[in-house]
Design brief:
about 260 residues; 3-stranded antiparallel sheet; alpha+beta
Protein backbone atom coordinates (compact mmCIF):
# COMPACT_ATOMS: atom_id res chain seq x y z
CA UNK A 1 0.00 0.00 0.00
CA UNK A 2 1.39 3.40 -1.00
CA UNK A 3 0.45 5.65 1.90
CA UNK A 4 2.86 8.50 1.25
CA UNK A 5 5.54 9.59 -1.22
CA UNK A 6 8.35 7.97 0.75
CA UNK A 7 6.75 4.55 0.16
CA UNK A 8 7.66 4.93 -3.50
CA UNK A 9 11.29 4.30 -2.51
CA UNK A 10 10.37 0.81 -1.31
CA UNK A 11 8.25 -0.60 -4.12
CA UNK A 12 8.64 -4.39 -4.45
CA UNK A 13 10.33 -5.83 -7.52
CA UNK A 14 8.09 -6.81 -10.41
CA UNK A 15 4.88 -5.46 -8.87
CA UNK A 16 1.58 -4.74 -10.65
CA UNK A 17 -0.49 -1.68 -9.72
CA UNK A 18 -4.14 -2.20 -8.78
CA UNK A 19 -6.96 0.31 -8.38
CA UNK A 20 -10.01 -0.76 -6.44
CA UNK A 21 -10.04 -4.11 -8.21
CA UNK A 22 -13.73 -3.72 -9.13
CA UNK A 23 -13.08 -4.28 -12.85
CA UNK A 24 -10.26 -6.79 -12.44
CA UNK A 25 -9.91 -10.56 -12.31
CA UNK A 26 -6.74 -11.91 -10.75
CA UNK A 27 -5.06 -15.26 -11.18
CA UNK A 28 -4.48 -16.42 -7.58
CA UNK A 29 -1.20 -18.04 -8.65
CA UNK A 30 0.50 -14.85 -9.85
CA UNK A 31 4.14 -14.82 -8.67
CA UNK A 32 4.41 -11.05 -8.13
CA UNK A 33 2.96 -8.58 -5.59
CA UNK A 34 0.04 -6.20 -6.16
CA UNK A 35 0.35 -2.58 -5.03
CA UNK A 36 -2.46 -0.14 -4.26
CA UNK A 37 -2.58 3.57 -3.42
CA UNK A 38 -4.07 4.38 -0.03
CA UNK A 39 -7.23 6.51 0.10
CA UNK A 40 -5.29 8.59 2.64
CA UNK A 41 -2.33 9.22 0.32
CA UNK A 42 -3.41 12.87 0.34
CA UNK A 43 -6.23 14.87 1.88
CA UNK A 44 -9.27 15.75 -0.20
CA UNK A 45 -9.23 19.53 -0.70
CA UNK A 46 -10.82 22.17 -2.90
CA UNK A 47 -9.36 25.32 -4.44
CA UNK A 48 -11.86 27.29 -6.48
CA UNK A 49 -13.59 24.65 -8.57
CA UNK A 50 -10.65 22.18 -8.48
CA UNK A 51 -10.86 19.20 -6.12
CA UNK A 52 -7.68 17.29 -5.25
CA UNK A 53 -7.97 13.78 -3.85
CA UNK A 54 -6.06 10.52 -3.54
CA UNK A 55 -6.17 8.09 -6.44
CA UNK A 56 -7.07 5.48 -3.83
CA UNK A 57 -10.22 7.32 -2.80
CA UNK A 58 -13.43 5.45 -3.56
CA UNK A 59 -16.14 6.98 -5.71
CA UNK A 60 -18.67 6.58 -2.89
CA UNK A 61 -16.58 8.49 -0.33
CA UNK A 62 -15.60 11.18 -2.82
CA UNK A 63 -19.23 11.71 -3.83
CA UNK A 64 -20.18 12.05 -0.16
CA UNK A 65 -17.43 14.64 0.35
CA UNK A 66 -18.46 16.53 -2.79
CA UNK A 67 -22.13 16.53 -1.77
CA UNK A 68 -21.28 17.91 1.68
CA UNK A 69 -19.19 20.62 0.02
CA UNK A 70 -21.88 21.36 -2.58
CA UNK A 71 -19.75 20.33 -5.55
CA UNK A 72 -20.76 18.16 -8.49
CA UNK A 73 -19.30 16.62 -11.61
CA UNK A 74 -19.02 12.85 -11.19
CA UNK A 75 -22.56 11.89 -10.24
CA UNK A 76 -22.71 9.65 -13.31
CA UNK A 77 -20.34 7.27 -11.48
CA UNK A 78 -22.62 6.84 -8.46
CA UNK A 79 -22.93 3.19 -7.48
CA UNK A 80 -19.65 2.13 -9.09
CA UNK A 81 -17.38 0.36 -6.54
CA UNK A 82 -14.17 1.84 -7.95
CA UNK A 83 -11.31 4.10 -6.94
CA UNK A 84 -10.60 7.34 -8.74
CA UNK A 85 -7.17 6.26 -9.95
CA UNK A 86 -8.54 3.13 -11.56
CA UNK A 87 -11.29 5.13 -13.22
CA UNK A 88 -8.79 7.59 -14.68
CA UNK A 89 -6.47 4.82 -15.89
CA UNK A 90 -9.26 3.04 -17.76
CA UNK A 91 -11.15 6.27 -18.58
CA UNK A 92 -14.34 5.02 -17.00
CA UNK A 93 -17.52 6.12 -18.69
CA UNK A 94 -21.23 5.46 -18.85
CA UNK A 95 -24.37 6.99 -20.30
CA UNK A 96 -22.43 9.37 -22.53
CA UNK A 97 -20.07 10.70 -19.82
CA UNK A 98 -16.38 9.93 -19.28
CA UNK A 99 -14.14 10.71 -16.31
CA UNK A 100 -11.54 12.30 -18.64
CA UNK A 101 -13.91 15.20 -19.29
CA UNK A 102 -13.72 16.33 -15.66
CA UNK A 103 -10.01 15.65 -15.02
CA UNK A 104 -7.84 18.74 -14.61
CA UNK A 105 -4.53 16.95 -13.95
CA UNK A 106 -3.12 13.71 -12.59
CA UNK A 107 -0.23 13.19 -10.19
CA UNK A 108 1.83 10.15 -11.16
CA UNK A 109 4.98 8.37 -10.18
CA UNK A 110 6.90 7.87 -13.41
CA UNK A 111 8.47 4.42 -13.43
CA UNK A 112 10.78 5.51 -16.26
CA UNK A 113 12.02 8.74 -14.60
CA UNK A 114 11.52 7.55 -11.01
CA UNK A 115 9.96 10.83 -9.96
CA UNK A 116 6.59 12.26 -8.98
CA UNK A 117 5.02 14.77 -11.36
CA UNK A 118 1.69 16.32 -12.29
CA UNK A 119 0.40 15.61 -15.79
CA UNK A 120 -2.13 18.05 -17.21
CA UNK A 121 -5.19 16.57 -18.90
CA UNK A 122 -4.04 17.88 -22.30
CA UNK A 123 -0.73 16.05 -21.86
CA UNK A 124 -2.14 12.54 -21.73
CA UNK A 125 -4.44 10.75 -24.14
CA UNK A 126 -7.83 9.26 -23.40
CA UNK A 127 -10.41 7.47 -25.48
CA UNK A 128 -13.13 4.86 -24.98
CA UNK A 129 -12.10 2.72 -21.98
CA UNK A 130 -8.45 3.64 -22.47
CA UNK A 131 -5.84 6.17 -21.36
CA UNK A 132 -2.16 6.48 -22.18
CA UNK A 133 -1.40 5.62 -18.54
CA UNK A 134 -2.08 2.02 -19.57
CA UNK A 135 0.93 2.27 -21.89
CA UNK A 136 3.33 4.20 -19.63
CA UNK A 137 2.44 2.09 -16.54
CA UNK A 138 2.91 5.20 -14.39
CA UNK A 139 1.36 4.91 -10.92
CA UNK A 140 -1.53 7.33 -10.51
CA UNK A 141 -1.20 8.84 -7.04
CA UNK A 142 -3.67 11.73 -6.95
CA UNK A 143 -6.18 13.44 -9.21
CA UNK A 144 -7.41 17.00 -9.61
CA UNK A 145 -11.01 17.22 -10.82
CA UNK A 146 -12.99 20.12 -12.24
CA UNK A 147 -16.23 20.53 -10.33
CA UNK A 148 -19.38 22.62 -10.49
CA UNK A 149 -21.56 24.17 -7.83
CA UNK A 150 -24.63 22.14 -6.86
CA UNK A 151 -26.96 22.16 -3.87
CA UNK A 152 -26.88 19.30 -1.40
CA UNK A 153 -30.46 18.34 -2.29
CA UNK A 154 -29.83 18.37 -6.04
CA UNK A 155 -26.64 16.35 -5.60
CA UNK A 156 -28.36 13.70 -3.47
CA UNK A 157 -31.26 13.51 -5.94
CA UNK A 158 -28.96 12.99 -8.93
CA UNK A 159 -26.86 10.38 -7.12
CA UNK A 160 -29.95 8.46 -6.02
CA UNK A 161 -31.40 8.53 -9.55
CA UNK A 162 -28.19 7.08 -10.98
CA UNK A 163 -27.93 4.38 -8.31
CA UNK A 164 -31.57 3.40 -8.83
CA UNK A 165 -31.04 3.19 -12.58
CA UNK A 166 -28.07 0.90 -11.99
CA UNK A 167 -30.19 -1.27 -9.71
CA UNK A 168 -32.79 -1.61 -12.46
CA UNK A 169 -30.36 -2.40 -15.28
CA UNK A 170 -27.33 -4.07 -13.68
CA UNK A 171 -26.75 -6.79 -11.04
CA UNK A 172 -25.51 -4.09 -8.65
CA UNK A 173 -25.60 -6.20 -5.50
CA UNK A 174 -24.35 -9.46 -7.00
CA UNK A 175 -20.72 -10.60 -6.99
CA UNK A 176 -19.51 -9.16 -10.31
CA UNK A 177 -16.48 -7.28 -11.63
CA UNK A 178 -18.36 -4.79 -13.79
CA UNK A 179 -18.67 -4.87 -17.57
CA UNK A 180 -16.75 -7.76 -19.11
CA UNK A 181 -16.40 -6.56 -22.71
CA UNK A 182 -15.95 -3.24 -24.47
CA UNK A 183 -18.65 -2.19 -26.89
CA UNK A 184 -17.30 -2.78 -30.41
CA UNK A 185 -17.21 0.16 -32.82
CA UNK A 186 -20.02 0.52 -35.36
CA UNK A 187 -21.78 -2.56 -34.03
CA UNK A 188 -24.42 -3.43 -31.49
CA UNK A 189 -23.36 -3.08 -27.88
CA UNK A 190 -21.60 -6.05 -26.30
CA UNK A 191 -24.61 -6.95 -24.15
CA UNK A 192 -26.87 -6.89 -27.22
CA UNK A 193 -24.59 -9.25 -29.13
CA UNK A 194 -24.44 -11.64 -26.18
CA UNK A 195 -28.21 -11.47 -25.69
CA UNK A 196 -28.86 -11.97 -29.43
CA UNK A 197 -26.72 -15.12 -29.24
CA UNK A 198 -28.99 -16.36 -26.42
CA UNK A 199 -26.15 -16.69 -23.93
CA UNK A 200 -27.77 -15.01 -20.92
CA UNK A 201 -27.72 -17.45 -18.02
CA UNK A 202 -25.02 -19.62 -19.57
CA UNK A 203 -22.73 -21.09 -16.90
CA UNK A 204 -19.25 -22.51 -16.74
CA UNK A 205 -18.34 -23.87 -13.33
CA UNK A 206 -19.34 -21.30 -10.73
CA UNK A 207 -19.65 -18.28 -13.03
CA UNK A 208 -22.80 -17.28 -14.91
CA UNK A 209 -23.65 -14.68 -17.55
CA UNK A 210 -26.07 -12.41 -15.71
CA UNK A 211 -29.73 -12.82 -16.59
CA UNK A 212 -30.20 -9.12 -15.77
CA UNK A 213 -27.38 -7.67 -17.91
CA UNK A 214 -25.60 -9.85 -20.45
CA UNK A 215 -22.28 -8.00 -20.18
CA UNK A 216 -21.89 -8.93 -16.51
CA UNK A 217 -20.74 -12.20 -14.98
CA UNK A 218 -22.11 -13.31 -11.62
CA UNK A 219 -20.12 -15.44 -9.22
CA UNK A 220 -22.43 -18.18 -8.00
CA UNK A 221 -20.27 -18.53 -4.85
CA UNK A 222 -17.76 -20.98 -6.30
CA UNK A 223 -16.37 -19.32 -9.44
CA UNK A 224 -12.67 -19.77 -10.12
CA UNK A 225 -10.26 -17.73 -12.24
CA UNK A 226 -10.13 -20.55 -14.80
CA UNK A 227 -13.97 -20.71 -14.94
CA UNK A 228 -14.06 -16.99 -15.71
CA UNK A 229 -11.38 -17.09 -18.39
CA UNK A 230 -13.07 -20.09 -20.01
CA UNK A 231 -16.41 -18.25 -20.12
CA UNK A 232 -14.77 -15.16 -21.62
CA UNK A 233 -13.16 -17.25 -24.36
CA UNK A 234 -16.43 -19.12 -24.98
CA UNK A 235 -18.35 -15.87 -25.50
CA UNK A 236 -15.68 -14.44 -27.79
CA UNK A 237 -15.84 -17.56 -29.97
CA UNK A 238 -19.65 -17.65 -30.08
CA UNK A 239 -19.97 -13.94 -30.94
CA UNK A 240 -17.35 -14.19 -33.66
CA UNK A 241 -18.95 -17.28 -35.16
CA UNK A 242 -22.42 -15.71 -35.26
CA UNK A 243 -21.69 -12.01 -35.82
CA UNK A 244 -18.07 -11.90 -37.14
CA UNK A 245 -17.29 -9.47 -34.32
CA UNK A 246 -14.15 -9.75 -32.19
CA UNK A 247 -15.01 -8.74 -28.64
CA UNK A 248 -12.30 -7.14 -26.52
CA UNK A 249 -12.21 -7.33 -22.73
CA UNK A 250 -12.93 -4.26 -20.69
CA UNK A 251 -12.13 -6.14 -17.49
CA UNK A 252 -8.43 -6.13 -16.60
CA UNK A 253 -6.96 -9.62 -16.37
CA UNK A 254 -3.98 -9.97 -14.03
CA UNK A 255 -2.10 -13.23 -14.60
Amino acid sequence: MIENESDLNHLPHGFSILGGGSNTIIDPSIPYPLVKVSPDYCETTIDGNIITCSAGQTVAKLLKWMTNNQRGGIEFAAGVPATLGGMVAMNFGCWGSEISTVVDSVQVYSIKDQKVKWVMRNDYQASYRWSSFQETHDIILAVRLKSNAISVDDSKKLILENINYRKETQPLYKATFGSVFKNPEHQKKAWELIEDTQLKGHKIGGVEISKQHANFFENQSSATFSDTIELIQFIKKEIYNKHSVKLECEVKIVQ
